Amino acid sequence: MSGRHLVTGCAGFVGSTIVDRLLRDGHDVIGIDDFSTGREEFLSAALDNRRFELIRGDLLDPAVSDEAAEGVETVFHMAANADVRFGTEHPTRDFEQNARVTLNVLEAMRRRGVGRIAFASTGSMYGETKIIPTPEDAPLPIQTSLYGASKMAAESFIEAYSEGFGIQSFVFRFVSLLGERYTHGHVVDFFRQLQEHPERLHVLGDGKQRKSYLYIFDCVEAMMHAMAASAERVNIYNLGTDEYCEVNDSIAWICEALGLRPAITYSGGRQGWIGDNPFIFLDTARIRATGWRPTLSIRQAVERTVRYLRESSGA
Amino acid sequence: MSGRHLVTGCAGFVGSTIVDRLLRDGHDVIGIDDFSTGREEFLSAALDNRRFELIRGDLLDPAVSDEAAEGVETVFHMAANADVRFGTEHPTRDFEQNARVTLNVLEAMRRRGVGRIAFASTGSMYGETKIIPTPEDAPLPIQTSLYGASKMAAESFIEAYSEGFGIQSFVFRFVSLLGERYTHGHVVDFFRQLQEHPERLHVLGDGKQRKSYLYIFDCVEAMMHAMAASAERVNIYNLGTDEYCEVNDSIAWICEALGLRPAITYSGGRQGWIGDNPFIFLDTARIRATGWRPTLSIRQAVERTVRYLRESSGA
Looking at CB atoms within 10 Å, which of A50, A210, A211, A274 has the fewest? Predict the structure, then answer.
């Protein structure tokens, strides 16, 4: 892989890490972000690099990706509404930001003759599957969140565009990611609660939800590794570690890292919110078969995240 | 089931058959169609019934379904771009007509408090699955057509709305349907060719594609049967017969019904077109477990279709 690549959501957690990686490897990178959740500071190194070009724009406007896709070899489509929890409070947002925007990106690729896409999907699209650890070819799931539904929709159109227009596709189903530039999710929720009142912590659900996490640099390395290895038209990979933890485990690690012993209260129930999946654990045999291995455990990734949050908050 | 029901795509093949069935059973029916492919003649009986109300409108306009959903108990969402074959010639049509429109219908249901949806999905969403006959919980498929992708997207949002907003959903994955009011597909293609030049017939693919079909009245009966029986929130059913045939078989039946012996030529290849699925055969154990049985074989359904096409073409 060399040449010019497009990263959507380039100022986000995953997108900005990919931008830095591609620039480090000597590629030309064009990035798009609307800065609705992306942060300019994540692009501070990239913006100093003459190989990087930034487009401020909204991918709901088809012209934005159409212009950016000119002369591009690979699109890393990372732009998304990544908020799973509040889906039902704005019911059409996931459809627009994740499904509609992906179609716009695919259309731009088709018109501009871009040959390859990497897509940030999610383990949430397996819903409450009974097969755990969950392989890529799990039984057709029932979607339990608008976020999962929107990623399933996007994946489906990516596959159809691969079949219909010869685009090579890489669909990566992430567990929750942790590490530097992590900006939303339960670790930051807990961190902020403890900054405000170090003596108490309120947890959604019963704390026994079992979740998987992957360190951001391990995630990006897995993507690059898989893309370098495959000549298949459609490639689907779960990305995660081969372990999971309870929410209570991560609370213990966070508290230890912060040197705190808060009183913990629980909202109760097996789900933290409607559509919360009480057990996410992906079978990662397929990506491991390419030779990739994660470098950090979940605990180490949580600790790195806490360190990052402390440093970036000036605490 | 009694009361007021909304049928989208009410002037189509399936929609108009549902309208007639609901009216026959004494329900009030409100129908929406934009008549892009629907035919006014299919509503001739309904339009004479004071219990039927017709809205001419485009479901891409959210106001159309929003107004129609007021006071409705069940939405039969049958409106769709049902053309599988020419998907790549108008790449965004399936997304708009099938995914976007379904979201609009779901939003109307959420806002108006409509409690139940029946949705016309498709066996095409199984792509080129290796599990044949294919059960409802087959391994996650790779989408091979924009049509299949759009139905997968619509199903996913229906499930998420069921989980998020308590709507009961019935997703029916049809094989190809045949019978009275059949307007597009290979039987009508062959029929028209033979009307034009009875001595020859050109077939896309090698004629050995294996396909399943279901008679339209058996299909609608299966839907009503499943909906009367279930209290589950999300219900997914394959609808088909427990047999399949080769395209060559249906050609033989059509020619016999018409008393013709044309010379047959083939375009060749295992697919008739990009995204054509060379073998569709659904496992229908789940719908059969409700007690439903089809009344016509595939051959009988083909023969009824030819009879209908002859009568409606005045041949």
Answer: A50
